[in-house]
Amino acid sequence: MKDFIDLITRLVEENSKIINIGAGIIIFLALFLLRKKLARGVLKLCGSIFFRKNERNRNSFIDTLQRPLALFFLILGIFLGVYINVHSIVLVRCFKIATIFVISWGIVSYLSDNLQLLFKFGDSTDDKLNATVIKFITNILKIVIIAIAVVMVISELGYNINGLLTGIGVGGLAVSLAAQDAISNLISGFVIVLDKPFLVGDFIETDSIQGTVVDITMRSTKVRTLEDSIVTVPNSKIADGEVFNISRMDKRLINTDLQLLYSTTSETLKKCQDAIMKFLKTEEKIVDFPIRVNFSKLDDSALIINVFCYTTITEVNEYHEYCSHINHNLKEIVESNGGIFAFPTTSVYIEHNA
After folding, report:
1. For residues 108 and 142, is the Cβ–Cβ distance under 8 A?
2. DSSP assigned state of 341
3. Distance (Å, whole) CA 339 – CA 326
4. Distances (CA, A) of 222 to 77, 204, 230, 240
5. What does the pLDDT profile of the chain (354 residues) look like in tens digits?
6. Three-state DSSP class for residue 48
């Protein structure tokens, strides 16, 4: 038995190179042929741990990372197959560098396909805006991940990265100072995205503009004004000011002053008030409360009846059409009850001395 063991040992020692080459080839072929199954098996195991209750996220996790992990197993097969026969520091460094790039590819690929699920944007009604945000965030993360990967590779190659990092820091500071407005607009774009003061299609009013939002990007918002022109407004100007979202109103105010002659009697004023109140209460598109019709003011050249109410119509064009309908009826009511509308007048008295 001892002689047999010695014989085997001697044969192994004499043919170690051939055995190592064969073992290397077997390891490479095994990992090459089984790389996809190994990748999917590992990802299924990890997915069942990390996403136990969410099948959608689990399937996306597996599908996204299967190709990068399969490539890693291929690289691992090449490395092990060669390293068994050739022990080289250069080979180890190459393996580390390849691993860094594969990991970076996997992270970027996963974020690109799953960022919407991670940030839970799927419930929002503005898909176009979500796509813009996801694309912008994905691009930033890609740049960051690639930059980290490059720095790690440079460090692995034996270069001193302290000077490089210092240069990047100084360059980044210079760029940020030169692009303050652009950065401010980007940050404001995130504020608009997260806070959602308006969406595409909403009618808004700011200190400087009034119109319908037609597009929202990370840098600016495009608004179609009442003159039917497209105005591009930097997001920082919108985010820093007051924004009135007319489209989100559940009712709109109608506030009108009727000016009658001073010769109008109190009885006529009362009749006009009662008739207007009765008319408003019969209008289906007028909110029941509050409705106010008051003799509100003794103006310089007229008696003022103030009509105050709300309508359920919020769309701009329909609202103005309905206001026109209300004003026509108010005019008819006043005239049918003996009222006469006033207009600005000035009485001049000339004192004549004999």
Report:
1. yes
2. B
3. 17
4. 54, 11, 6, 16
5. 665 566 556 655 556 677 777 888 888 898 889 999 999 999 888 888 887 777 777 888 888 889 999 999 999 989 888 888 887 888 888 899 999 999 998 888 888 777 766 555 444 445 555 666 677 777 778 888 888 888 888 888 777 766 656 666 666 655 555 556 667 777 777 777 777 888 888 888 888 888 889 888 778 889 998 888 999 988 888 888 888 888 888 889 999 999 999 999 999 999 999 999 999 999 999 998 899 999 998 988 899 999 999 999 988 788 899 999 999 999 999 999 999 998 776 667 777 665
6. helix
Residue whose C-alpha is closest to residue 146's, from 182, 183, 100, 192: 100
The β-bridge partners of 245 are 204
With 0-12 CB in 10 A as exposed, 13-18 as middle and 19+ as buried, what is 128? exposed
Rounded Cα distance, 258 and 295, in Å: 9
Entry pTM: 0.53
Phi, psi values for residue 37, rounded to 5°? -65, -40
CA 195 to chain centre: 9
SS3 state at 157 = coil
Angle between helix 180-195 and helix 127-156 axes, rounded to 10 deg: 130
350 exposed, middle or buried (CB, 10 Å; 0-12, 13-18, 19+)?
Answer: exposed
Give the residue ranges of DSSP H helices in the chain. 2-14, 16-50, 55-83, 89-119, 127-156, 162-178, 180-195, 235-240, 266-282, 316-336
Q: Are the C-beta atoms of residues 42 and 69 closer than 8 Å to each other?
A: yes
One-letter amino acid for residue 78 of the chain: I
**Distance, CA of 330 to CA of 328 (rounded, Å):** 6
Query: How many other β-carbons are positioned within 10 Å of the β-carbon of residue 1?
Result: 5
Alpha-carbon span 23 to 7, nearest angstrom = 20
